[in-house]
Amino acid sequence: MTCDLLIENAAVLTVDAAWNLYEPGFLAVKGDSIAAVGPMAVRRAWEARTVVDAAGKLLMPGFVNAHTHVAMAAFRGACEDVDDRLRKYIFPLEARLVDRDLVYRASRFCLVEMAASGTTCFGDMYYFEDEVARAAREAGLRCVLGETVVDFPAPDCPEPYGGLGYGLDFISDWAGDALVKPCLAPHAPYTVDAEHLRRVRRESEARGLPVLMHIAETAPENERFTASHGSVLRYLDAEGALYPGLVGAHMIYLDPSDIALAAARGLSVAHCPGSNAKSGRPICPAADLADAGVPVGLGTDGPLSGNGMDLQGIVGLFPKLQKMRRNDRGAVPARQAVRAATRGGAEALGLGKVTGSLEPGKKADLVLVDADSFGLQPVYDWYAAVVYSMRPSDVAATYVGGRLVWDRTGMKGFDQAEAMADVRGVADRCRGVIAELTGGAS
Amino acid sequence: MTCDLLIENAAVLTVDAAWNLYEPGFLAVKGDSIAAVGPMAVRRAWEARTVVDAAGKLLMPGFVNAHTHVAMAAFRGACEDVDDRLRKYIFPLEARLVDRDLVYRASRFCLVEMAASGTTCFGDMYYFEDEVARAAREAGLRCVLGETVVDFPAPDCPEPYGGLGYGLDFISDWAGDALVKPCLAPHAPYTVDAEHLRRVRRESEARGLPVLMHIAETAPENERFTASHGSVLRYLDAEGALYPGLVGAHMIYLDPSDIALAAARGLSVAHCPGSNAKSGRPICPAADLADAGVPVGLGTDGPLSGNGMDLQGIVGLFPKLQKMRRNDRGAVPARQAVRAATRGGAEALGLGKVTGSLEPGKKADLVLVDADSFGLQPVYDWYAAVVYSMRPSDVAATYVGGRLVWDRTGMKGFDQAEAMADVRGVADRCRGVIAELTGGAS
To answer: Has this prediction a pTM greater than 0.95?
Structure first.
C-alpha cells in the first residue's frame, strides 16, 4: 500500500481505547489522515513518498489546549499577583488596547510557542476571532474559535452583546474550513443574561456548533448563583442554558449534584489547573467529572492567566492537583493525564472523531518527541515520561493534518522572526497603558 | 579596575535586599567572586580579560535546589502513581540496585540537566555521597551533600546507622573543598532514633556543619508523633533534635505553634511543592514559615519523586500552591518566588553569605537567560517572566564561582554524551528488578 508520509522506528503512543503502544512502531499518513499505525513488524506492507526515521523518538498525538485566549500574549506577565485582576486590570487593558491588529499579531506570535511545544489543536475565546482564525490558518493549527458575547461594549463591538452578530458573521465566513471551527463564546454566567445564553444556544444548535463559556470560575459568581439557585450550574440549567456541546472552562465550584448534572446534560469541561491555582482558587473536581463520564480536556488559559502556553506545563500539574484533592497518590495515573491532554481535549471540543489519538481515519495531528534529553531519560514508562518529565524543548516536530507545521528550524507557515518582532512592537504600544493602570508597578 | 570576566548589557536581577534591577546592567567577576554589579552607566570603570555581551539576555543568580537525591535519576519514572511507594518500591529498589557505580553515573547524568537549567547549587541526601561529590566536582556545581544515616542496612553500609561512620569519613575527606560541603543526613524522624539524632547534632555542631533531614513529610510519621508529642516538631524538640543548621525537607505537617517553634530553634526549610503534590500531600505552609522568619528554599526532591530536575518546574508551582492555600492571588508575589529559588535556598543550606544573589563579595554563581524565546516574551516584569514563563531551555549559560560550567554546546567539566550513555546502561541494569517489583506494570 502507498501513503504520503511514513514515520517509522518510533515508540508510538496511540492513546487509543486499548492504550496500544508500539515500540518500535510506525504510522502511515495518506492525505491529511492516519492510514495505519502499528508495530514495525507490519510496516513493510507500506510504501511512502516521504519516510521519517524516528528511531529514539516518541510519536504521540498532538496536545490539545482546550481553553485559551491566544491574543492575550500581548499582555503576558503584566499586572501579576493582584486582587480582582479581571475588573481592575484586564477589562480596562482590553478596552484601551485590543484592536484587530493586536489580535492578529499577538495570536500569530502565541501560536509559535504552541506549535513548538506540540500543540496541534486549541480552543480559543476572544474578540476579533476572525483574526485568530487568520493566524491559525497561517500557522496550520486546528482550532475551535469562539467569538465573545458579553453584556458590555467589547473591543470589536461597541454595543452590548454585539459579539452575537459579529460571531454569526464569523461563523458564516469560516464555515467548512478544514482547520478552523468558528463558534460563539458567551463570556460567563455573570456577564451574559439568560435570554442571550438561550439565544446563543439556539443559534449554535441550529448550526451544529459547540459553545465555549467560562463557568463556575470565580468566587463572586459562585456566591451569587448559589444564593439564587443553589449553584452556578443549577442556575444555568434552570434557564435552559446547559446542553450538549457546551464546553465549560474552569468549572471549579461544583458539588456532587452539579457533577451529575453536568454529565446528564452532556457538558464538556476545559480544566485549567495552572491558571486556577495561580488565581488562588480551589481545585476543579476534574477527576470526579471524568469518572462521571464528562469529557475533560486540559487548557493553559490565556497567556495573562496561565503564562506558559505549552501543555507540558499543565499535563503534570493536572494529576498533582487531583492527587492533592483526593489525598491519593494513585489518583489520575499518568496515562489518564496523557489522555486528558490529547484525546480528552479533542472530545471536550467536539472533535473526538477528528483528532486526539493515533488511529486510522483520524486526522494526522502528531508530535515527534526527542527522547534523548537529559530531563527525560531514563524512560521506564512513556506515560510517566510525558506527564512528569517532558519539557517543551523536547518536541522535535509537530504535524497537523499530516502537514509539518513546526520543526527545530521554525514555523513552516510564516516567518517566526517577524512574529517575534511584531509582538515586541505590540508590547511597546502596551507599556504606557500598563504602567498607568498599575501605577508603574509593572 | 581590572577583572577576569565582565558580563554587560544584560537585564541584571540582583535579588539583593533592595531588589536592585539594572536594565541594562553589568557584572564583574574577579577570581571566583563578584567584584561589582550595577547599571551600564558605571561599567566603564572596568576592564576585563573576557567580556560577554549579553544584550537581550537576563542575568540572574543561579538557581539553588535545596533538596534532592540526584543519584535517583537512575530510577526516574519507575513505579509511579502507586500507594506506599517508599516502602513497597523505593527501599527495595535501592537495596537491590544502588551501588557506588550507579550513584556516580546517575549523579553525573543528573547534574547535566541541573546545570543546563541554571542550577548552580544543590542540597543532596543519599548513599555513597562521596561519589556524588566526585560527580559535582567534575560538573563544577556547588553543593551541600548529606550522607544518609538510617536505622536499617543501607546500600553503602550493611549495619544500621553505618552512615554515621561513612559520613564522618566523607566529611573529613572533603573538608575545605571549594564547591562541596559534606555533612550528615539523618533520613527522617521515623527512621532514625532520638539517640542517633542527638549524635548527628553533636558531630555536626562540633564541625560547624548543616544537617539535612526529611521532616514532617508523611502522614504516618505525622500521626505517630502527633499521638506521642503533639507534632513531629515537638517530638524532635523534646528530644533535643531541633537546632540551628538543621534543614528540614518537606515540613508539611505543621501547625502554627510548630511554625513558631521552627523559627525559635533556627531551622531552615527545603520546600518541595512538586514532589509533595505528586504524593497527594497537603501543602507545606511555606509562606507562613517565611513570614515567621524561617529561611525557605525550594527543592525538586529526587528524580523519582519530582522527575524534572529543573527549578523552573518548581519556582512557578511554589506561589501557585501558596495562593491556593491562602485563597489569595496576592500570596507570594513573583519576586518572592524568585528569591526563594535563589537566595532563599542558599540561606536554607547555610550558604547565604556565599551565594544566592548578585552582590559584590559573593561567589559568581550566575545564569544567563535568553530572553527572546516565544514562551517568555513579551516581558513587562522580569520576576513574573522567571516565575511563570521561563522554561529550562531558556537558559543560555551557567557559571559557578565565575567558571562557565554549561552553555548550549554542553557541559564543560565532562563529556555529557558519555554521561547519557552511562545512564542508559544503568537503566538497562535496573529494568529487570523494576519489572519484578511492579509485576511488569512499569
So the answer is: yes
